[in-house]
Design brief:
The protein is an all-alpha fold and about 180 residues long. It has 11 helices and no strands. Helix 3 packs antiparallel against helix 4 (about 50-65). The longest helix has 14 residues, at about 15-30. It starts with a helix and ends in a 10-residue tail after the last helix.
């Protein structure tokens, strides 16, 4: 199985997608419990737009092991498909396994917003704002979403930080009163 796995990696690096997929599948026939081969296959399938096939591979990984990488990838695939409840479930699973998984809380906040749950979205985005890798995007998303739903308390709490991060926030007339302008 390792030879097929390594050939799959080589074919992927060369851009030989169908050959890589075939080699990952050959590796998995001999090594069905390899979450890394299955995860890599899912990533490759997602890259070529075969989202249902990719999701099936990530779900197969998660049926055996709580792998945050696969939960995060599944969440992104379901978000691409506009399947917000499924995206939320996968991203929640990711942050349950690894609360500081890079970009998971930010994406979870966005998924909640898309699903119409702005309170949970803002709560998650505030958690994402505390993480270095998503601080900027999360703060800007908080201000934008809080403005949309007229959450004055959150606007007051975050608008100054947003103005430090993005000059366009300082120039927004809707937010000027929160900035003391």
């Amino acid at each position: 199985p390792e030879a097929h796995y390594n050939l799959a990696i080589l074919h992927t690096a060369r851009g030989e997608t169908e050959d890589a997929i075939a080699e990952y599948r050959a590796a998995l026939r001999l090594w069905p419990d390899s979450f890394q081969a299955r995860h890599n296959l899912g990533m490759l399938l997602a890259q070529v737009g075969r989202l249902d096939d990719a999701a099936a591979e990530f779900e197969a990984v998660l049926a055996r092991d709580p792998v945050p990488d696969s939960a995060f990838a599944l969440g992104l695939v379901r978000a691409q498909q506009g399947r917000w409840p499924a995206a939320i479930a996968a991203l929640e699973r990711c942050v349950t396994e690894d609360p500081t998984y890079p970009r998971a809380r930010y994406n979870l906040g966005l998924a909640y917003a898309k699903a119409g749950d702005t309170t949970k979205a803002l709560d998650e985005l505030e958690l994402a704002a505390a993480l270095e890798d998503t601080h900027r995007e999360a703060v800007l998303a908080i201000v934008d979403l809080a403005r949309q739903v007229n959450d004055k308390a959150r606007l007051e709490r975050w608008v100054l930080e947003a103005a430090k991060l993005d000059p366009q926030v300082r120039e927004n007339p809707e937010l000027g009163r929160f900035l003391g302008q």
